[in-house]
Specification:
3-stranded antiparallel beta sheet; mainly alpha; single chain; about 55% helix; 20 helices; Chitinase A, domain 3; about 475 residues; disordered C terminus
Amino acid sequence: MRRTLRLTVPLTALLMACSGDAFSGDPELAAKAAGQDLRAERVAEIMTSVKGVTINPEAADFVSRLWVDYTLFAQAVADNSLTTDSAMVANAMWVDVAEITAGHWIDTLIARRAEVTPERVDSAYAAGGVRVLQHVLVQVDPSATEVQRNAARRKIDGIAARAKGGADFGTLALDNSDDVATKVDSGFLPPSPRGAFVPPFDSAAWLLEPGEISDVVVTSYGFHVIKRGTEAQAKARMTEWLQTPLIQQMEQRYFVELDSVNKVELARDAAAKAREAIGDLAKAGSNNGTLATYADGKLTVAQFARWIRAMTQDPTQGPQQLEQMKQVPDSMLEAGVRQVANRYLMLRDAEREGITITPEEWGEVQAQFAMSVDTIKASIGLGPDVIDPSASEADRRRAAALRVDQFFDRMTTGESRLRLLPGMLAWTLRERSNAAVNPAGVQRAVDLAKARLAADTSNAVPNDVAPVAPVRPAPGGPPVSGDN
């Protein structure tokens, strides 16, 4: 299985200032992109068309920036500059490529530094402190009727009979178990010490010999049949179980080594420069000032900004996270700069060792990008009138702008859903075309939206209360660690 290493981890809550390309001027203008204008009145109309939307600057800013991304995308389609060639894909999907490459490098380090020897597995198994178990659960609700409990008991009795008759236990779990967390893995539970599960389950499991199957076990979750793994099954799973803490320790040591061996030193004003970069990522993208130095190189403000962009691709989180970021102390900003430097150094190590993404993986990344682009084209409705080379450029641009406007209408009514541009494509498009959001226009949109709602006496949704998101029940399945 291919490993990818998540490189865009939150760096001490450093988050997105959405490009810093705002402009002053006409307060009736909320945003502009690729020669198109977004009026504050249009933003107000969009916000008030969706029930329950919080009318505040954050919502107006989100709508404006989303419009910028879609407009840049649509206009790039109209002028035929949105390609799916290698150069575009490499620029837009560099995070995916970097994470796959880093995953290969970590796999190499695991093989070198975190190998679990057969002797260690044998020793852990012989010690007897950990068991590998499978189970099938027929769940019974505490409020179940007697009829329901009897039906569940008949089902588990049948499963137990088939298991003891030689049926494959993993197949029985896959076909019958109500423990959704383990059934997909043939009913296997993680290697666990005694006392890890509820008492009836635990007591029965620890009486079993390797390969032995229990009678029906009753717990507060329902009815179980338990099998203790064979020696071969246990050792195979204990290898991964033993390796997990070794990998964690190896990764921690490796990053400490990266820092010390490469003599990473932060610039004296690193925190101030990082804070300024986060406040204006667009401007920071061309800033070659030094944030940190290390052996044979340095981390520039532009490189740091690129990583922050990657961390904050999802525009649905940006405004709230930005407010959190503004409260981060200098010490945490410095820690974030050091983490980014270490990630560049890790990728440099991989390159020096000849570790790269494979041709097959590159093909997958290209295909993923092309599919996402095609899906967004179809969602917006960028059809023949937008891409027809025989039409004038002006006509194609007008058609593209109209399709974006219609797409927002469909989103407000629920006919279309929000789709985010793949990878770093939004930033790639922003770098190639003029785009800006006007804070004065954003505030004007809020004022207009509140006025619209105030005038609409049929609207009963408070405009200063955020809607409550629906709660989804968490999946799960017994047995679980606990005392009940």
